[in-house]
Amino acid sequence: MQDFFTIAKTDFLDTFQGAWIFPLLLIVLVFIFWKEKDGMRRLLLGVLPLLFLFIYWCPLTGMLFMKLLGENVYWRILWLILLAVLIPYGCCLMIGHLKGWLRQGAFLIGMAVIVVCGTPLFKSEEFQSSTNDYKIPQNVVAVCDLLPGNVHALVSNRLMPYIRLYDPSITLEFGRNALAYNGIENPTGNQILYAEAQKEEIDVPALAPLAKEEGCTFLVFSNSRTYSDAWESYGYKEYGHTDEFTIFVDTDYEEGQNTKKWEE
Hints:
Blueprint: H1 2-16, H2 21-35, H3 39-57, H4 59-69, H5 83-96, H6 100-117, H7 138-146, E1 152-154, H8 163-166, E2 171-172, H9 190-197, E3 201-202, H10 204-213, E4 218-222, E5 226-227, E6 236-241, E7 245-250
Parallel strand pairs: 1-2, 1-4, 3-5
Antiparallel strand pairs: 4-7, 6-7
Helix pairs in contact: 2-3, 2-5, 5-6, 9-10
């Protein structure tokens, strides 16, 4: 039982520590019991929150729920107390029973309490400024900054969902729907090219001719990939690289050339 109270106390303090939420909850519960005339509202907004607090702190129900839910998530019983409903409702009920300057003063005090209890958003540890205006991963931006516009490319699966968000003029041999090709035992058509591109060691003599046939001017692979042969022997050469990806280009490509295969 000592372990139960230790866990319950720790989780309770972690939930309410650093704010005035729990004292506000007790105040509004007292006021709801005092002034609320509707029996159903008093039950839902007054009795039930107290019942959940009783269930949380009572050793019999507490130890039972710890076994059912697990000690690590037992504190989520406190989520059943709808603070975002109870506190505003209780405050509105309180203000509604005041008149004149007392009502205005209570409203201003309530606003001040919200400011004092809250945490400034831009100082929060959870807030981080966006690294780019496109709100897409920075590694994608690094690759797109190297790729010319109006080209057709075969790219790593990690880049597929984002490339065209940055530059819609870049067309892709495979999009996210190509993930359905994974696990196909007898690939056909450009499924073969996709299967070759997924290998840890790229079979250059097999992949390069298929990529050329499909009009893939640029190939983008993770730096972790290895290659069975030199790309230069099969019509591609290294074009550039980032911290995570290496870019290869068709040796026949000329800067400014439009290579989108369906616009040829």
